[in-house]
Amino acid sequence: MNFLGDDIKQIFVCTEPVDLRKGIDGYAAIVQSIFHRSPMDHCLYIFCNKSHNKIKALYYDNASTGFWLLYKRLEKGTFKWKISSDGSYAEISEQQFRWLMEGLKINQPTAFKKIERQYV
Question: Which is a Pfam family this sequence falls into (predicted)?
Answer without folding.
Answer: TnpB_IS66
